[in-house]
Automatic annotation (TrEMBL):
InterPro entries: AhpC/TSA, Peroxiredoxin_AhpC-typ, Peroxiredoxin_BCP/PrxQ, Thioredoxin-like_sf, Thioredoxin_domain. SUPFAM superfamilies: Thioredoxin-like. GO terms for biological process: cell redox homeostasis; cellular response to oxidative stress. This is thioredoxin-dependent peroxiredoxin.
Length: 152
């Protein structure tokens, strides 16, 4: 069953681009934007990740963490983050175990999908955005959701 709005976000621990283990529960108490993307340094993923980078201050102002997840290695993530000055954490989900745990879709049954989750400070999923080709929509919808959470 895919994770949906109202569900508690499943905890996980994955290596970051620096090789250090990162758990979702490490961020409990603050909102998290968790985005799954297909592959480092590809056109769509670069556009999406740079859109998160360009709005990173908006996320920080909202008290939120941004975390990107793909099946790429920590070394690949490190190069990708350095090349595009990505200021947030990228996690390596080798074998797509966490992607499967979340039920994040695949495109055309082959390519890992592009799905973003906005998780509140209690660990509850407040929004899910699933779009393979609306790269910037992931960022726009996450910001809208965080703003709604702040005013609620």
């Amino acid at each position: 069953m895919p994770v949906k709005v109202g569900d508690t976000a499943p905890n996980f621990t994955l290596p970051s681009q620096n090789g250090t283990p990162v758990s979702l529960e490490d961020f409990r108490g603050k909102p998290v934007v968790l985005y799954f993307y297909p592959k480092d340094d590809t056109p769509g993923c670069t556009t999406q990740s740079c859109a998160f980078r360009d709005q990173y201050e908006v996320f920080k102002t909202a008290g939120a963490e941004v975390i990107g997840v793909s099946g790429d290695s920590p070394e690949s993530h490190q190069k990708f983050a350095a090349k595009y000055q990505l200021p947030f954490t990228l996690l390596s989900d080798k074998g797509d175990q966490v992607r499967k745990q979340y039920g994040a879709t695949t495109a055309f049954g082959l390519i890992p999908g592009r799905v973003s989750y906005v998780i509140d400070n209690q660990g509850v999923v407040q929004y899910v955005f699933d779009s393979m080709f609306n790269f910037k929509g992931h960022v726009e919808e996450a910001i809208k959701t965080l703003q709604q959470l702040q005013t609620a």
